[in-house]
Amino acid sequence: MTSQEKLQDFDIPIPTKRSKISDESEILAQKYDMLHEHYTKDGLGQQTQLFLRRIASSPEVPSEWRHIPLLRMLSDTCKEFLFNELEISMWSIFLEKVVWNNHSLPLHWLLLYSAYAAKRYLNEDMQVFEHFVLKKYENFMHSYQNWLMTHQDLIKVSPKKLNSKYLALSTPPTLLESEIIDYNYYVDDILQIAPPSNANEKEVKIEVASINVEPDEPKLPELLNLNSVLKDATEMPDQLSEKAISHYDLFQPSLGNEMDNIPFLLPNLSRIPSNIKEEDI
User: What's the pTM?
Assistant: First the structure.
């Protein structure tokens, strides 16, 4: 009896050896995820966006493809293959040669095939990207090889051609180009990062009670009779303005004939001597 049979008799689970191919696939997937996260963490750079805008607004693009979100499709493909500016320049050449005038396949697949060809053209180690496309797109390699066999004579690019395309795409934008930028690209970005309308958000409402605090006015003595004015005159502040004095209703009918003895109203009652007597007025 073998050792394996003995383990089965005791109902002990036999450890299975993990496939080496499975381990490598997991490592490649993790590596791509790490590279993709680093590439998209801060979004596409300004230079990359300029390259893509110029490609999308190129007169080489057929009119029937101008009504679709072409810039968005270019950006998504660029993020999938982690393109730098040189690779975008190569991709732009392939688009002009074998994509814009080709209607044999859906545009989405034409963009993928041409992007993968540009990536492979300028890079030696393609394991990470090969694993990515095989995992995401079923039967990708077979269909890509068929496409490549048809167009392989057209995608041969000289270094001078690549350099010329890079310089053309990297030139600072002119005033004319600022008018043809597709601002729907930014609208799509805003809509993608915006929270859904039915999201449960905690709203904190802070109510601030508006309190109108009026400055305290100096208390004025009640004018019960003339003696109350003369008694409190020395206690009134020297800064009492004529506006404050106007609060004295000296002409109330309730005062009677006592007001007949006052020839005029002094602007500052604090100047009345404290030793004045009622019979002197």
Answer: 0.58
